[in-house]
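Final report, Chapter 2: Outcomes

The project's central promise was a pipeline that accepts a single protein chain and returns its three-dimensional structure in a standardized token representation, suitable for archiving and comparison. That pipeline is now operational. To close this chapter, we reproduce one record exactly as it appears in the project archive, with the input sequence first and the structure output second.
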Amino acid sequence: MAEMKKRWMSLYVENQVGVLSKISGLFSAKMYNLESLTVGTTEDESVSRMTIGVAADDVTYEQIKKQLNRMVEVIKVIDLENVPAHMKEIMFAKINNINAEKMTELFQIAQVFGVRVVDMGTKTATIECVQTESKNNEMIKLLKAKFSTIEIVRGGNVAIESVSVTDRY
């Protein structure tokens, strides 16, 4: 069986109604699983950039890129597999039902991980994490171990090719 691994690509697409639906429709029609999808407009408001994460073997990944390149609305496909890139994921974690001692512990964790506490009540705090997906996974693991009630919202990765050849996500 071919090795399935997480792979990343960026697409420049026309910023039009229905483009996201067509691209996600391609993935569902071919039974490809989108693990992460983030979309936003670029400096040119008529163009959006998508960052897509997919678990696929080599053959399937090549098929996905070819099929995306054939779509009229797709301007450019960028394979992020072998290029230096900066990649981050935004995540919010809300920690509920915490006392003063646990609140202090949360602030210490936030400081160590380099994340921000962005909202706080008497028994609840929310932290904002803009880190790599793996660092956010570690954060979730630690929060689950330390606190009884947490809520997690993840926004998916965004990526851009690096200017320097030494940088890699």
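Archive annotation: The chain has two domains: 5-79, 86-161.
This record, like all others produced under the grant, will remain available to the consortium after the project formally closes.
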